[in-house]
Structures are given as structure tokens and as C-alpha cells.
Amino acid sequence: MITLKRAILSDWPEIAKIEKSSNSNTYSARVLEKEIKDYIKKDFVFLIKNKTVTAGLASFKLLKKKTAHCNGLVIYPKFRRKGFGVKAMSLLLKRMNKYPRVELVVHPHNTSAISLYFSLGFIIEGWRDNYFGDGEPRLMMIKKK
To answer: With bands split at pLDDT 50, 70 and 90, how would you rate the model's confidence at 28?
Structure first.
């Protein structure tokens, strides 16, 4: 059974470990203690739990105009391609359901994530070059209502 557990400040080492497991040119990991603690304080950050085992994290933040921005979905490599991402994202979307606009950004080469988001009703809204200042482009996706 997959559940989402709201992260607390003392979870920062686990979040750092999850983030580091996915750092690549398609995902810019948060790795500094202060950065992760600020993330926990300012955003809705959840540990993805498979019973008592942590499988990853999922998060969103609120923007102006009643917009929820999904700003994190990271699954430990050993739990990938087993349905954890779909289930976690579905649970996260339930938490964001009251917001008229749900959006996210994804690297255009991250085809697994793009397929997952399409399966949950997201569509591509646009393309941004150098979105995070890392020289890499991102697709802007929104959830169809």
C-alpha cells in the first residue's frame, strides 16, 4: 500500500538521499541541507511510503492565481517501473484537486516521466529553454480539467 507522509524537518537527510539518487541532466537535485529544509518549510513535501519503506518523494507548491505547481516526483531507482510514480502522483493530484490549475515542468528527454504525466491527463503547454539556468530545456505541462 502506497501512502504519502508529509515531510518534517528531521526528514531532510532522507530527502537528500532520494534527491541524490536521481541527479542527472534531466533532474537537478536539491542537495544542500539549507536548501532541503527551506523546501520542506515552504512547499508541500511528501515521502512516498510503501508500508514502512520510503520509495521516493513527491511535492508541490502554491503559486499565484490558485495554481498548484508540482515541483518534485523522485522515485528511488529500485522502485522505478513498478507503479510507485503513478500511484504517488495520483495521490498528490488528489491533494491539489481544489486548485483550478495544476502544472509542472519536465525535461524533454525524460520520456518515462512524460508518459506518466500524459497517462494522468497532463498536456504540453509549451517549451522553455534554460528553465532552471542549467542550460537544459523543459516542457511546461498542465493538467486537463
So the answer is: low
